[in-house]
Write a structure and sequence with these properties.
Largest sheet: 6 strands, mixed
CATH topology of the largest domain: Rossmann fold
Number of strands: 20
Strand order of the largest sheet: 6-7-8-3-9-10
CATH class of the largest domain: Alpha Beta
Helix content: 25-40%
């Protein structure tokens, strides 16, 4: 009964806080694997947070820690300010949806939806009410009599969501629920998840390795790598202002262009000097004048190697070497084109550096010979190559 009384104080919708949480596992030879490293994160009431990262980054472990399926080695997990480390999974009142729907094949959709509620000895009338509501929200009303083997992959995933939905939990946890769906179904389910979150106004946490899912669905996106939380931001802020080189490379497709050079004064302005890989001569170096405000912000790095990051859509086909203010001109050579329908990805080599530009689908650069490229440096982000961290600048 103590767990039940504590659960009542946690509120109907959870604000989830992790404070300096660490979780380690031990391999078959006794080696230590740090799955989550000193992680602090707050998931606000009714927020839809997407946790993004590659395989092995600690995403699923993070969900299991929130659910109570794993216990942290150090740190505190709280719901609405109340620590829950000591509470069992059933006492935390969370619902988790996995990649594998884990539906009972011999039960109908209605019976799969009802099973968890009946195990909690909920009155039959309330069970039926919740099943009908969830079925209506998810478009399952006409499928309640079917068994999982008679459903499509998308419909089975909807049933798995419905099974969590009927619980009315404080927190929804979704562990890559769309990973096994084809692109069309995945897009449809993303829309349904967004609508479901809007309807329920509950706290929802989803993990994925797919950046397109994260950017389309999350109100906030948390990027994990090797158990470390690297950045938490809105999808737009994450894309425009990556906190470090890993986020810059991992978020956005095609990835951000990264140019390495030395910051040096030139004609009264701070410039990025890119030495051509084909020659160490400074006479053949490419000089990119930085915007005035960015130059002022980076003045103390004069003489240091710096990495300039620029998204593919901020590289344009140039007509002449007379670049507009806060834009730089670069001569490149087209390597290959990737037609993507509404847009074309153009791969160049410029000053020995590979670059990719995102152009409108109707644009076609010449397939041979040099071509002028215009770089919109107002949109550039700058990084310290030693730490990998973004440098203070005035990038838009």
């Amino acid at each position: 009964m103590q767990g039940a009384s504590e659960l009542a104080r946690l509120g109907t919708v959870a604000r989830v806080t992790l404070d300096k949480v660490t979780k380690t596992f031990h391999g078959p030879r006794g080696e230590v694997c740090l799955a989550v490293r000193d992680l602090s994160l707050t998931i606000e009431h009714r927020q839809l947070l997407v946790v993004l990262g590659p395989s092995g980054s600690g995403k699923t472990t993070l969900l299991r820690l929130i659910a109570g399926l794993e216990q942290p080695d150090t740190g505190i997990i709280s719901f609405n300010g109340q620590p829950v480390n000591h509470l069992q999974p059933a006492e935390r009142d969370v619902a988790m949806v996995f990649q594998n729907q884990a539906l009972y094949p011999h039960l109908t959709v209605a019976e799969n939806l009802a099973l968890g509620l009946r195990l909690r000895r909920m009155p039959s009338s309330l069970v039926q009410q919740r099943i009908q509501e969830a079925a209506a929200w998810l478009g399952l009303t006409n499928l309640l009599h079917r068994r999982p083997g008679e459903l499509s992959g998308g419909q089975r995933q909807q049933v798995a969501l419905g099974r969590a939905l009927v619980r009315r939990p404080r927190v929804f946890l979704l562990d890559e629920p769309l990973a096994h769906l084809d692109p069309c179904l995945r897009g449809q389910m993303l829309v349904e998840l967004r609508q479901l979150h809007h309807r329920l106004e509950t706290t929802m946490v989803m993990v994925t390795h797919d950046q397109s899912e994260a950017m389309r669905l999350g109100q906030q996106v948390a990027v994990l790598h090797e158990g470390r939380l690297l950045q938490v931001a809105s999808p737009e802020a994450l894309y425009q202002h990556p906190a470090n080189l890993f986020v810059a490379r991992f978020v956005g497709w095609p990835p951000m262009n990264l140019l390495r050079g030395t910051l040096q004064p030139h004609n009264g302005r701070l410039c990025m000097v890119l030495a051509s890989e084909s020659s160490a001569s400074t006479d053949q170096a490419v000089v990119l004048p930085l915007p005035t405000e960015a130059g002022a912000a980076l003045a103390d790095r004069c003489g240091q190697v710096t990495i300039l990051g620029l998204r593919p859509e901020h590289i344009h086909l140039g007509i002449s070497q007379r670049a507009e203010p806060d834009r730089a001109w670069l001569s490149g050579r087209v390597e290959w084109l990737e037609p993507m329908g509404a847009e074309t990805w153009v791969h160049f080599v410029a000053a020995g550096h590979p670059l990719v530009a995102r152009l409108a689908g109707s644009q076609r650069p010449p397939s041979t010979g040099p071509i002028g490229l215009e770089l919109d440096l107002r949109r550039a982000v700058y990084f310290d190559p030693a730490s990998g961290q973004a440098l203070p600048s005035v990038a838009c």
